[in-house]
Design goal:
The structure is a homodimer.
Chain A (H helix, E strand, L loop, with lengths): L7 H4 L22 H12 L10 E3 L5 E4 L2 H12 L5 H10 L3 E2 L5 E4 L48 H51 L2
Antiparallel strand pairs in A: 1-2, 2-4, 3-4
The first copy, chain A, binds a DNA duplex through α4.
DNA sequence: GGGAATATTCCC
DNA sequence: GGGAATATTCCC
């Protein structure tokens, strides 16, 4: 295991802690997720035609990247940037950040905001929401797009106020969705109880009828 | 970094997947959390008086353990068992599993179920996470507490920011409560479905027996 | 591909 | 000490 990227200082630079109070995922962080930076830099560092064949590289137009040799990539590249050497864990992260596998024949991945020469664009990439996952998928609503469309027109100064208001709005929207889900659960619970009651009644009747 | 304990096979053996299609934390897992096993084994492996002074060991009666040298422990011991060498991350895990620091003078920790010679007891130790345990009392939603408790003492027009932050905090608290309610509902739903299934099975069997 | 658990990190 | 985010793993 190497030590440049595995150093702890670089490992987690979470996008929280903006200013005074606290905010979670609804505000855009000032710096990209460590995973994205590492993956990007890993591509920049590769490519310089080394000795053997390429292990991983940008694709032709820099709109995505290709893992040419998953085996070597896992054994040699991954541990230099991450705390593991599992290709599947790397893939899991790609999926978490919304990358798409765009070829069935080779390990080529794309993300709209992940392009060669656009390291600054990485900040636009966010983890897919995993709302504490308490509800079944069939009740899941589309509370996506908390990504803030902040017009860069108004800069620094006090956009923290704007951000707070934005977050506030999102929280209220989320609250509404949660309340609706709870309503659905209540309805579902009643149906289930009703069903249970019927089945038991039915059972009772048959038992009586046959005694 | 060594490789015995860092091997992936041993890393995560989650306590889920019991029997049919069921739930994690309500059923006791068959094997302790990896963190506990590693910490226990690390203590067993130490102690054999090596060359220098002890780095970490059980305490006198085996009811807890002591990290004698945090620096060496972090640099030498931790990376052999975990994917890091940060003492604070180790402490964080201890807290997660309910260990207590029982001395202000040295790094001595205890957990009722973590004792020398009782490796089998580790399975009793669980994470302190938010178990949606059966039916607690957070079903009392704080729907009205959004009325902000503004102390009229501060009356600068700048307090709108404060108010926003306050409301924001309350919204997040409310969100958590709603999510927990949803967790309760989900648990309830599963219980109802299970119950329904049993009743119907029972019904089926009786019917068959009487035809 | 993604849900969910544990692990690691950062912050209060 | 603990909340919460990201990382890693396991499983479907």
């Amino acid at each position: 295991m190497a030590e440049n990227y595995s150093s702890n200082v670089l490992d987690l630079n979470l996008g929280v802690g903006n200013g005074s109070g606290q905010v979670g995922q609804s505000l855009r962080p000032r710096c990209p997720a460590p995973f994205l930076l590492k993956t990007y830099d890993l591509l920049e560092e590769s490519g310089d035609g080394g000795s053997g064949g390429k292990i991983v590289s940008w694709n032709g137009d820099g709109s995505g990247f290709i893992v040419w040799s998953p085996a070597e990539f896992s054994e040699l590249t991954l541990p230099r940037y991450f705390k593991h050497n599992n290709f599947s864990s790397f893939i899991r992260q790609l999926n978490t950040y919304g990358f798409k596998k765009i070829s069935s024949k080779r390990w080529e991945f794309k993300h709209e905001k992940f392009q060669r020469g656009c390291r600054d664009m990485l900040v636009e990439i966010t983890r897919k929401k995993c709302e504490p996952s308490v509800f079944p998928s069939y009740l899941k609503s589309s509370s996506e797009e908390n990504a803030i469309t902040s017009n860069n027109s108004m800069e620094e100064n006090n956009n923290s106020h704007q951000l707070l208001m934005e977050e506030n709005k999102n929280l209220k929207k989320e609250r509404l969705e949660l309340q609706m889900q709870i309503a659905e659960f209540k309805s579902l619970e009643m149906k289930l109880l009703e069903c249970l009651s019927q089945v038991m009644d039915n059972h009772q009747n048959k038992s009586r009828g046959q005694c």
